[in-house]
Design brief:
By secondary structure, this protein is an alpha/beta fold. The chain has 20 helices and 30 strands. The model has no long low-confidence stretch (mean pLDDT 92). Bound molecules: phosphoenolpyruvate and manganese (II) ion (MN). Residues 103, 129, 133, 165, 185-187, 208, 238, 270, 273 line the site of phosphoenolpyruvate (PEP).
């Protein structure tokens, strides 16, 4: 049973209800959300003869009988998705997380090498078994404590948090000492004593689905951990036994959308144990991201043919690298981002102020989503009215970072931002992120499309939905300063026939209703945002550079610079010309180059560019947001 309190309920009123329930011998689990406090009642509900007794207590808004046997794991208990932190990585938010590493730790050298490889391709958590639950007692059983020590060394060397499987309560103390998260394997999913003990540690738990477990069995297993007061459970689907024999198991991807409805817990997919063959791991890993999983766990080995366990399903390092690029491209299509191992994308946790990231617009803006998707859920988007104010916020040191749009695939470059980058010499691009832009028609609760007469949005928002708006020729279109601001405006005016075009989250933020989804003309509508900060920052392994330069006004001047790029084998991903401010006959060129800025090639290129141009400005060095799949 779940008791929901009025948003105005006092602490005393909540305590009274809690006391009443516990006096009946029942357990309670309190969840204080931003709006409502919820009390989950656990135990034999036969003790409460009449639920009206609860309903009449001051402060109680609703008493919901829960029909599912699991309670703490249920979505009714917790509407918002649970975020589970492993080290400083959050699982279950907008960022898709990749856990990778070998099946088993085989030696210090093997796990160190594996950690470097998976980190280099962008994995954020390292896996590796030290206690291996093998079907045969005659096969490699793992290195035990020695293996855990090796894992801890790999963490020290790479900074990656580590997850490893606990096969028995007897190893728990050791596991807690060396690991950042505990895996409960498929074979132990219903080892209830182990689940209770794992729950008592309070550590993040990666709970694999048993090979013959139903989704309900699995959620009940999660309930064992949760009911010990440990909320940090991640579910991991790894394939179930079916009549099919051509794969090791059958991967139940439908578990992802089913669980998203039933539970608030994050869910990840292990395509390695599901298929048992490396060539099948890759397509299923892609599918896992496409169907909404919060992450994947994949086995990767520096030399799979020598692996002591699960070699045939372990990816070669280059296969893993390619898979990561593919996933990175898929994530924005489903509205998410791949959590890559980029130092600047981790928010400093020591000071709350440092978590603020400036953007232009109001809450619900696409830029605010870009902040969250780059920096994670801990980041606090800090709204500013204009781009100029965003730059001033950085100059004044009020925030360390800001996120600004650079270009849209339909609308082209945001020139004002480029102009500001030129004016503010110390502000540099230190990251980029690409978001798919989905437009939504938003109106008042109860409004219908037939009743709409007026629509507000930023001119870009209106332009991106040209075809949709053409099918409603009688609607009056009114431009606003930003998309989310249009929703706030419609809300304020309170007229049922008015609507706005904006992001889906702005409907939620302003308490409005989505009337139509995905109304943009182009399904491939993307905006590229830059993460900017004062100074050069510390971007690890940058592979992209943005420059602006002005050439002499003579034939072949631009061509000669482009030839230099070609000669140094540097790929150019953007070239755009802009008239020089105040001198419309001269042109500046904005160029993005895919190059390692610490390379000799780049140094020589910059020298050459300097000698043949009127001005060169380096706008920043960063990691490119996504790779093309054909690379
Ligand atoms: C593992 O991840 O190493 C493992 C043994 O997986 P499962 O429990 O899913 O078989
Ligand atoms: Mn394995």
């Amino acid at each position: 049973m779940i008791i929901v309190f009025d948003s105005a309920a006092t602490k005393q009123q909540i305590d009274n209800v809690e006391d009443y329930v516990t006096a009946l011998g029942l357990g309670v689990h309190k969840s204080a959300g931003s709006e409502y406090t919820i009390l989950g009642v656990i135990g034999d509900l036969g003790h409460i003869s009449d639920t009206r007794q609860l309903l009449i207590m001051p402060g109680v808004k609703e008493v919901i009988p829960v029909s599912t046997p699991y309670k703490l794991a249920s979505r009714q208990m917790n509407q918002a998705d649970t975020l589970v932190k492993i080290g400083d990585v959050s699982v279950g938010g907008d960022k898709v997380v990749v856990i990778a590493g070998p099946c088993a730790v085989e030696s210090e050298q093997q796990i160190l090498r594996s950690a470097e490889i998976v980190k280099g391709s962008g994995a954020v958590i390292l896996r590796g078994g030290a206690f291996k639950p093998r079907t045969s007692p005659y096969t490699f059983q793992g290195l035990g404590e020695e293996g855990l020590k090796c894992l801890a060394k790999a963490r020290e060397a790479t900074g990656l948090p580590v997850v490893s499987e606990v096969t028995s309560p007897e190893y728990l103390d050791l596991m807690v000492e060396y690991c950042d998260a505990l895996q409960v394997g498929a074979r132990n999913m219903q080892n209830f004593e182990l689940l209770k003990r794992v729950g008592q540690t309070g550590m993040p738990v990666l709970l694999k689905r048993g090979m013959s477990a139903t989704i309900e069995d699995w959620l009940m297993a999660a309930e064992y951990v949760l009911s010990e007061g440990n909320p940090n459970v991640i579910l991991c689907e790894r394939g179930i036994r079916t009549f099919e024999t051509l794969t090791r198991n059958t991967l139940d991807l439908s578990a992802v959308p089913v669980l998203k409805e039933l539970t608030h817990l994050p869910i990840i997919i292990d395509p390695s144990h599901a298929t048992g063959m490396r060539d099948k791991v890759i397509p299923l890993a892609r599918a896992a991201i496409a169907c909404g999983a919060d992450g994947i766990m994949v086995e990767v080995h520096p030399k799979p043919e020598t692996a002591l366990s699960d070699g045939p399903q372990s990816l070669y390092p280059d296969q893993f690298e390619k898979l990561m690029r593919e996933i990175q491209a898929i994530c924005p299509i489903v509205g998410r981002q791949l959590d890559m191992n980029l130092t600047i994308s981790r928010m400093p946790t020591h000071s709350p102020d440092a978590r603020q990231v400036a953007f232009q617009g109001v809450p619900g803006a696409f830029s605010a989503r870009a902040v969250r998707q780059f920096f994670g859920e801990e980041a606090e988007p800090l709204p500013r009215d204009t781009f100029g104010e965003v730059f001033e916020t950085l100059e004044a040191g009020d925030t360390v970072f800001a996120v600004v749009p650079l270009e849209n695939s339909n609308g082209g470059s945001v020139h004002e931002v480029y102009d500001l980058l030129l004016q503010h010499e110390e502000i540099k691009i230190c990251g980029e992120i690409r978001l798919r832009i989905n437009q939504t028609l938003i109106g008042h609760a109860g409004a219908t499309i037939d009743g709409i007469k007026r629509v507000y949005s930023h001119p870009q928002g209106l332009a991106q939905c040209h075809r949709y708006l053409r099918s409603h020729p009688d609607w009056e279109q009114l431009p606003t300063l930003d998309t989310a601001g249009a929703v706030a405006l419609v809300k304020d005016r309170g007229l049922a026939h008015e609507s706005a075009i904006a992001s889906y989250e702005s409907a939620e933020i302003y308490g409005m209703e989505v009337l139509a989804e995905s109304i943009e003309d182009q399904s491939s509508n993307y905006t590229r945002f830059a993460v900017i900060g004062k100074g050069w920052g510390a971007v690890e392994n940058p592979d992209k550079v943005s420059l602006v330069y002005a050439t002499h006004d003579r034939p072949g001047a631009l061509l000669s610079t482009l030839q230099d790029f070609a000669e140094h084998n540097v790929n150019m991903s953007k070239l755009e010309s802009r008239p020089v401010l105040g001198n419309p006959l001269e042109h500046m060129f904005y160029v993005d180059l895919e190059v390692d800025p610490s390379s000799e090639d780049f140094a020589r290129l910059m020298e050459k560019l300097g000698s043949k141009t009127l001005l060169v400005r380096d706008l920043g060095h960063y990691r490119k947001a996504s790779h093309r799949i054909d690379e």
